[in-house]
Amino acid sequence: MSTGNGLRIDKLLWFLRFAATRAVAQEWAGTGHIRLNGRRIERASAAVRAGDVLVLALHGTVRVIEIIMIPTRRGPAPEAQGCYRFVDSVDNAASSDARNGRNGGDTADCGQHNGQRVDGRPLTPLATVPTATSPISEGQSPP
After folding, report:
1. Amino acid 52: pLDDT
2. 82 with 66: CB under 8 angstroms?
3. pLDDT digits (tens), the chain, 143 positions
4. Cα torsion angle, 109, 62, 47, 9, sign
5. Exposure of 75 by Cβ count < 10 A (0-12 exposed, 13-18 middle, 19+ buried)?
6. Taking Cα atoms as reference points, which of 42, 34, 41 lies closest to residue 58?
7. Could you tell me which residues are beta bridge partners of residue 129?
8. What is the Cα–Cα distance from 22 to 29, expressed in whole angstroms?
9. pLDDT attached to residue 1
10. In the sheet where 34-36 sits, what is the strand order?
11. What span, in angstroms and rounded, lies between the C-alpha atoms of 70 and 3?
């Protein structure tokens, strides 16, 4: 059921494929972690219209999207992606990735590391385990 000229935010999140189920979208909208035109949303029934701006926490990052048009159904992903656009620019996303230690999709250094995990903690060496080729110290029995 649409509300006037807009659509309930839970249905919108589900139609645009930001939430896997409508129940997840309702719970997400009720937590208060979504902003609609700068206003905190705490109800799944809040109406969203074309031209509104949503701030969403997605996959560990905050994304700002503008609703271009209100979808009429939960269609395929390309159809859903045509109903909104990301307002935060690619430059902002790339600089955010650089600040967080991510290379933004550049695979030139794939497999190499600087002695730290992605989150900045140092790598710890693996415990050395005697192998069949390692010498056995005196007084030790073979495994």
Report:
1. 95
2. no
3. 445 578 999 999 999 999 999 999 999 999 988 999 999 999 999 999 999 999 998 888 899 999 999 999 999 999 999 999 998 754 444 444 544 555 444 434 444 445 556 666 666 665 555 556 655 556 666 55
4. positive
5. middle
6. 34
7. none
8. 10
9. 47
10. 39-41, 34-36, 53-58, 61-67, 84-86
11. 12
Neighbour tally for 80: CB within 10 Å: 17
SS3 letters across the chain: CCECCEEEHHHHHHHCCCCCCHHHHHHHHHCCCEEECCEEECCCCCEECCCCEEEEEECCEEEEEEECCCCCCCCCHHHHHCCEEECCCHHHHHHHHHHCCCCCCCCCCCCCCCCECCCCCECCCCCCCCCCCCCCCCCCCCC
Sequence letter at residue 8: R
